[in-house]
Design brief:
globular
Length: about 220
């Protein structure tokens, strides 16, 4: 946050600040946890105070997310397993991360891109063309939910109650909720395709929800 504020005041246009957003979000999507959300949220709050332009923040973050994801994918594909198995700090934690990622890919397929480091996609040898699309979707959903919500919250916290401020907060939350529902729908459809007999039985018993999800405790 302080680094972004300093960068935004380094030049009249604050261009360097957008490069910082691009770089740090890229590192986050390449595999360093916790950076992307903090940077996007912090930059959006600065934009809400007039220090940056929110459109520039969102564009820089979206491009950084895609570039960082592609970098993490290639690192994972080439050196991922050796990096995770390399002696050093927290090797068990790194190996657990890979194991959990592999389990998610087996259960969720391409949807796992939303919830695992991009290096895991490379380690799992996900088809590159598919990863490009799903990484873009994950980055867009993340940026367009965190960014506008933080921007709207920043403006509302300083007394602005105009439609732009309220709409930014509501829009970001709506995109987050919609992404969750779409992800759940995709997972239900995937499970239905993988187990058509179980789904047909559940449908006949009347315990299947719209979208193909079987109610818990049934089937």
């Amino acid at each position: 946050m302080h680094a972004l504020a300093a960068a935004s005041s380094a030049s009249p246009s604050g261009f360097f600040a957008y490069l910082v957003v691009f770089f740090l979000v890229g590192l986050g999507f390449a595999g360093i946890p916790g950076i992307a959300s903090a940077v996007i949220g912090g930059a959006a709050v600065l934009a809400s105070q007039g220090e940056l332009n929110i459109a520039g923040v969102l564009v820089a973050a979206a491009i950084g997310a895609e570039a960082g994801g592609l970098l993490g994918y290639h690192i994972g594909g080439r050196w991922g397993r050796s990096i995770m198995a390399h002696p050093g700090r927290t090797p068990e934690r790194r190996q657990r991360t890979v194991a959990k990622g592999e389990a998610l890919f087996r259960r969720w397929g391409r949807l796992a891109v939303f919830f695992t480091p991009s290096m895991v996609s490379g380690i799992m040898r996900m088809e590159f063309s598919q990863f490009v699309v799903w990484n873009f979707l994950a980055g867009a959903a993340f940026v367009l939910s965190v960014g506008p919500a933080a921007y709207g919250a920043g403006r509302i916290s300083t007394g602005h109650t105009d439609p732009v401020s309220i709409g930014g907060l509501a829009g970001g939350l709506a995109i987050a909720a919609s992404s969750f529902l779409l992800a759940r729908w995709y997972l239900c459809r995937r499970n239905a395709r993988r187990a058509p007999g179980r789904t047909a039985h559940a449908r006949a018993e009347g315990v299947i929800r719209p979208g193909g999800c079987i109610r818990r405790g049934q089937g």
